[in-house]
Design goal:
29% of the residues lie in helices and 28% in strands. The protein is an alpha+beta fold. It folds into two domains: 233 residues, Glutamine Phosphoribosylpyrophosphate, subunit 1, domain 1 (4-Layer Sandwich), CATH 3.60.20.10; 153 residues, Rossmann fold. The strands form seven sheets. The chain has a seven-stranded antiparallel beta sheet with strand order 4-3-5-2-11-10-12. A six-stranded antiparallel beta sheet has the order 6-7-8-9-13-14, with helices on one face.
Amino acid sequence: MDSEMQEKCGVFGVFNHPKAAELTYYGLHALQHRGQESAGIVASDGKSFRNHRGMGLVTQVFTRDILDGLSGNMAIGHVRYSTSGESLLQNAQPLVFKYSEGDLAVAHNGNLVNARIERDVLQQQGSIFQTTTDTEIIAHLIARSSKQHFAESAPDMLKRIDGSFALIIMTEKQMLIALDSHGLRPLSLGKIGESIVASSETCALNAVDAKFWREVEPGEWLLIDENGIQTGRFAEKGKVSLCSFEFVYFARPDSVIQGRSVLTIRKELGEILSKEHPTQADVVVAVPESSVPAAIGFSHQSGIPYEMGIIKNPYAGRSFIEPTQELRDLAVRLKLSAVQEILEGKRVVLVDDSIVRGTTSKRIVELIRQAGAKEVHVRISSPMVRNPCFYGVDMPTKEELFANKHEHERAMGQVIGADSLAFLSTEGLLEVVDVDLGETSSRCIACFSGAYPTNI
């Protein structure tokens, strides 16, 4: 919807498997929630690339015939939602290039905060860019590195980029996997026998029956080829700042991040939300799907029964911004519907994971009231979003954010038509998502606090 935040993308890679492209297809399907604008796969047979990219969902972009044509024992894939660069086929990833050493393919999840500076420098040096995405900078830096071979030029490139990046880069015979020094995005490794699999989330490892091996460390790179696996560091591991919204909203609930179950964390967020902002009500309902675990946790802690008061149409697809208010309202009704027999005459606690612009929240409250609810108390399982993200999350400007337009929760609640509105505290969030990580570890909460882990 027009007020939802969107993750930039998901990456997936397979090394040393006869059906690498097919496994990558299934991995991307499991990561579809991270990007719905485009999808792509590049495969290598050790001599040359075969690739296909397209706009739309994974199942729309790839057919059986296309997958059969992507032969090779190595492949990388990508699903995208644009935050840096326009929504065009030329920006669909993995991006493929030819340079002095041969073919190069890049799949990137995140956003480079120094992209404009590096792009200007590269253009002054004669680079000609073919896309408007920051990911292309990575290829130019490898091609222009003073190091002669990919095994040296790729790690050298990593020292030049800043921001958030979970990267999988491939040549005809080698694959490099790397994570930014703050660990802002998740990136996991798995194994299928002797094959290596890399994925943005563990749910995609499960989809291809890969056994979880370990997570990529912040500031680490791994180079995989016929000689085995080399590892190294392009930056010292500093303060870990994994995006807290991975736990709140982005990641699939069946994923595990840094040893923590996303589903369990969301339930615990709901429990703390209930402790911080109790209310008298008859039923707890969730805005599906990502808010369901938090609503269950709220129900468990409060003793108020949880019901499926709102149903999501799984075939509605993405609701693009429509030109009129009437069509925008219709888009919400196509995607969500209220169950009258559950809501009529009831005092309802509506649990959602976040409020960005506030427009969708208002429409959902209206749906619940039209179904006959007597009261609607909105509870949000994350703090107020007051600051934009520069690390690969599509988010409005600071002035457009709902929390910056109104001083108090009471005023915000009136705007969306709720009888009350309350947000989880930052302390409550960190109590759940930032445990047992050691003194040098934390989460990125910049969108709540304004304290960014990198220079902006």
